[in-house]
Specification:
seven-stranded mixed β-sheet; binds FE2/S2 (inorganic) cluster; binds flavin-adenine dinucleotide; globular; alpha/beta
Amino acid sequence: MDDLYKPLEAKVERVINESPGIKSLVLKPKKEFKFETGQFIELTLPGFGEAPFTPSSSPLDTKKMEVTIMDAGYVTSRLHQLKKGAKVGVRGAFGKGYPLDEIEGEEVLILGGGVGLAPLRSLILSLIAEKKKFKSITLCYGAKTPADVIYKSQFKNWKKAGIKILRSVDKKDRTWKETEGVVTVLLDKIKVNKKNIAAIVCGPPIMMKFGTLKCLEVGVPEEAIYLSMERNMSCGIGKCGHCAFGPYFVCKDGPVFKYSLTKKYPDIWA
Ligand SMILES: Cc1cc2nc3c(=O)[nH]c(=O)nc-3n(C[C@H](O)[C@H](O)[C@H](O)COP(=O)(O)OP(=O)(O)OC[C@H]3O[C@@H](n4cnc5c(N)ncnc54)[C@H](O)[C@@H]3O)c2cc1C
Ligand code: FES
């Protein structure tokens, strides 16, 4: 990491429409950019501001980086207007990502909702690259409707790579042949090995809350549940206090936290 405050210029190489409100930007930074899966970056749009995102691509590709962005407000709506060739800035990478060493040898259960699949895609690609180190990998993913499912073309490759995939939508249409219901119902369809499991949860706050409760209900120990936390951020480096909860800063101590650590703080799902 060079200068923490100075964005590195990156060019938008491709814009991918993932779903009605979500786009991925394929970025080519001016020089090699390294991150660990689950770490986040600040993406700067000159003249408008910056916002934190977790790269959705594999950390093994240091020449290109993908960021998957939901149109949520001021900066993200402008990021959605970018076309191929546009210039942005990238700061980071910041924080602590997924502890791949810690979960080695475990059955990995990934629970994702909506755009929460973005950091999990980076994780999935990292796990696939070192598949032998993990007992099994299961992905449970939920979206509101079939149209809201992101990375539609990629599930096939992940399945081929040996990942067990279960998907649900809150409201199905005639095209949907999989589960209808909230993503947590998928956990009733799998067998959880309570002794050798790591559950990784990422999605909107309400999904994180009920996803975590469901993991506990099916027997995942609280110290084996990893949450990707989101908080309003400013500096990204533990200076401004915007992202604090309890004694922790999401930008510095996270964004990935064990549930056993965060559970003491009632506002973690805010
Ligand atoms: C570590 C981290 C990783 C993230 N990764 C992704 C990602 O991969 N893809 C993605 O689409 N989004 C991600 N987000 C959320 C993204 O940063 C916010 O959607 C974005 O900052 C909103 O900026 P805005 O100017 O468009 O919206 P604003 O106009 O500022 O606000 C729109 C709404 O979003 C809320 N909001 C603003 N900032 C955040 C924030 N940082 N977190 C949660 N809510 C916020 C506001 O309270 C408001 O309700 C991540 C956030 C964090 C902290
Ligand atoms: S964003 Fe400033 S302390 Fe975390």
